[in-house]
Amino acid sequence: MPNKTIYVSDDDLALYKRAQELAGNLSSAISAALRRYVELEEGRLEGYDEITVRVGRGAGRKQRFSGVLLAEGGRSSKYGYEAFKVYRSRTGKFVLHADRRDLYKQGSTKPAAGDDGGWRSWIGTLGLLDNTWSMAQGEATLDVVETVEELRELIPEDLYVLVEEAANQPAVEDLDI
Questions:
Q1: What is the pLDDT of residues 38-52, one digit of tens each?
Q2: Predicted TM-score (pTM) above 0.70
Q3: From start to end of 77-174, where are the E strands?
Q4: Is 53 in contact with 66 (CB distance < 8 Å)?
Q5: Which run of H or of E encompasses 177?
């Protein structure tokens, strides 16, 4: 196996030593770091971002992938709220991040009788500020599918239309201007 010499500045010597303590085999740690760096940089040059999302119940855990956001949307009802983000991964798959939360408290924001309430009161009469609500920690999921058609049953129809339109667009379009 060929040898390669890596020069480490005095300022980075402590980092080098710590990496060796953690990895045991510094060569494999450097290779893994370089592999991840190259993957991220190649993706960035192709227009993809590193996406980190929360999944699971409550605080859950984090998952990370390389992708580009195609569309996002949501829907709410008197029972809860769902927020959807659809990404195209660097491998060409479609990734759906869904965050579902339950509403647990409702009340009125209208001013008391005889209270002017200012402009907020006026907007409230239009139905824009009729209710207050709070959300409990919900559950977030991450689904990966091969085709846009597989998303149809998982997201609202209006969001599906947006994803379908964006699906064939390049992550980055280089302009010669």
A1: 988 888 888 889 999
A2: no
A3: 80-89, 94-108, 131-135, 139-145
A4: no
A5: none
